[in-house]
Amino acid sequence: MSTEMPSLTCHCGTKFQPPAERKERRVNCPNCGAVIFLATPKDDADDDEEIYGIKNSDDEPAVKKAAGVEGIPDWLDDYRSSPNVKKADRAKTLALIDRLATANPTLDPLGAALYLACTHADAETSVAALTKVAASGHPAYAATAVTLLEFVTPRDAAGAQQVLLLLSEVHEVAAEELICRVLRQLGPTPIVQVRSLISLFSTRHASLYIWGVQCLALIGPPAKRAVDALLKAIKINSHPFRIAIIDALGVIGGEPERVVPFLMQTLKHEQVDYRKHSAQALGRFGAHAAGAVSVLMEAQKDPDEGVRQAAAKALSLIAAAPKGGATAVAKPASASAPSDTLIVACSCGKRLKAKVELAGKKVKCPACGGVLVVPVPAAAPASAQAPASPGPASEASEKECPTCWATVPVKAVLCVCCGYDFRAK
């Protein structure tokens, strides 16, 4: 039984009937001559109808592209469709890429890398390979790679970690500047490892310092290992860089015993930006910033309205934060203190004096309002089992990834930042 073939529609708008008898699975448009490929018949035996369509080289399997195995990267799609690229230049570039399909990785490693960059959809592979070729200075490939890099955008930020590692492999100033430019094009991203970002502050690539701090801020609390490096980097004389550090310290929220006093000092800075951002950062520490209440109240009288608003919001955040985490530490009485007096330290930094008969009872911290339980004196046997400080208890709930230095919950099986498997020890 013969069935009528469905008509075809070319991209020029011409509709025509394909020949009933054909040797090849393609036909030419009778109007413009475009080649139209006939799709493979469906596998369903009950349906012998064939589906026709125009073959598009962009039609890669969605699953493979999502997995990064095959496909056209987004930046190459942008290059091919950009109206700002001359047709002759585009044709020349795409022809070069097609020729590189047969490049020998041993004899022509850069040619193979350029082809790899253009045929893998995942940014981690494509952007790093493309940057490596561009930084090589190759007389034929580098210029092409540099042109294609102009179409890399923040959506390709997954390649930032591998691009950052290229900085340790190149030694020419021009190549280093190109890599730094690519990283700034990709924009801040939480994908970069904490370990790499900490190392970045000890390099001469000052143009990436703010980028690195912004990446740490996006990573947030898992980047606690970077607090020490940020506090040291604050000495660099750059106003935008210091503001970025203050913001990052507030978002990360690590080491409040060191960061909160620092922010209390910057809250008194002569420049408005420092005061405003310091107040905002203190608010993010919640109950841990209870010792900063007095300076924040003073900041509510600041001549700048932005600072006043930031201080008021910080005070509300501190007041609303749960105070159950405030713990007390009993220390032996000093020589100057009466023998019947205990020195009790609150987690907010306030040191209180309590009588021995109050041991085991609840008291209220006058600084942060937290409820404290006065521990049994150190001489008593019961105190031997009491924690010496709140530090170990909080540290026991977290562990550090040996690969990227990110801080994760102690029960975590995989690192949320780099994917390290703790079971592989």
Give the secondary structure arrangement, pairings included.
Blueprint: E1 8-9, E2 15-16, E3 26-28, E4 35-37, H1 62-67, H2 74-81, H3 87-99, H4 109-119, H5 123-136, H6 141-149, H7 160-165, H8 173-186, H9 194-200, H10 209-219, H11 227-233, H12 239-252, H13 256-266, H14 272-284, H15 293-299, H16 305-320, E5 328-331, E6 341-346, E7 351-355, E8 362-364, E9 371-373, H17 390-395, E10 398-400, E11 407-409
Antiparallel strand pairs: 1-2, 3-4, 5-6, 6-7, 8-9, 10-11
Helix pairs in contact: 4-5, 5-6, 5-8, 9-10, 10-12, 11-12, 12-14, 13-14, 14-16, 15-16
Summarize the structure.
The chain has 425 residues and is mostly helical. It has a domain at 328-386.
Overview features:
single chain, mainly alpha, 3-stranded antiparallel beta sheet, two-stranded antiparallel ribbon, 41% helix, 9% strand, elongated
Descriptive notes:
The chain is mainly α. It has a domain at 328-386. The chain is 41% helix and 9% strand. The chain is built from 17 helices and eleven strands. It has helices spanning 62-67, 74-81, 87-99, 109-119, 123-136, 141-149, 160-165, 173-186, 194-200, 209-219, 227-233, 239-252, 256-266, 272-284, 293-299, 305-320, 390-395; strands spanning 8-9, 15-16, 26-28, 35-37, 328-331, 341-346, 351-355, 362-364, 371-373, 398-400, 407-409. It has a three-stranded antiparallel β-sheet with strand order 5-6-7, with no helix packed on it. Strands 1-2 form a two-stranded antiparallel sheet. β3 (26-28) and β4 form a beta hairpin. α14 (272-284) packs parallel to α16. It is elongated. The termini are far apart.
